[in-house]
Amino acid sequence: MERFAIIVGDITRSGAEAIVNAANPSLLGGSGVDGAIHRAAGPALLAECRGLGGCETGRAKLTHGYNLRAKYVLHTPGPIWQGGHLGEPALLASCYRSCLTLAAEHGIRTVDFPSISTGIYGYPLPQAATVALRTIMGFLAEHDLPERVRMVCHSESTAAVYRQVFNLWYAEDKDSRL
Ligand code: APR
After folding, report:
1. In ligand 1, which atom is closest to the CA atom of 123?
2. Is the preceding omega at residue 146 within 30 degrees of 0, hence cis?
């Protein structure tokens, strides 16, 4: 199984064991991918989230997936972009690391991520993709679980940026490039 892939799709239809929700600290739902995941999972997800007491930016909490194909949802509030000098990169990296750590602790084998913070929270995509890929690839290099991680991009344009960043840093054949 390829350990990492970038795909285009709707994360609410993912068959991964766990999907990640780009949440807000209240964990009480929202719009964007948060709203889509809650709509697809059904009201039981919100009921479980109510009992979690929120989640700090950069941390992650696990719930069941209910009506989703995914067995679990890893909820993580990403940082709101404020220019990049108020700790946003470290907080975004912490989102990815917290989700991967929680997944490994629960023996979860496959995890799908959305592009955290790059929608309503305004994180510029190239910078976010660089942080996301560095964190994911670094974690996979040091851990056996998850066995597979995917970045599920909602549009081809988002995927193109992730693929560009991936090829810049991680493509095997990079030394064959001019
Ligand atoms: N599948 C995959 N990706 C999706 C989907 C989907 N169904 N819907 C949206 N996305 C993508 C967006 O295109 C964007 O690339 O998820 C990425 C994150 O965008 P947002 O959902 O806006 O999340 P974020 O930028 O982290 O802002 C979080 O928005 O929904 C609220 O409650 C949430 O307050 C929080 C804020």
Report:
1. 25
2. yes
Total Cβ atoms within 10 A of residue 49: 23
**Residue closest to 66 by CA, chosen among 83, 87, 49:** 49
- pLDDT tens for the chain, 178 residues long, are 789 999 999 999 999 999 999 999 999 999 999 999 999 999 999 999 999 999 999 999 999 999 999 999 999 999 999 999 999 999 999 999 999 999 999 999 999 999 999 999 999 999 999 999 999 999 999 999 999 999 999 999 999 999 999 999 887 765 655 5
Ligand 1: centre distance to CA 109 (Å): 23
Rg (CA), the chain: 15
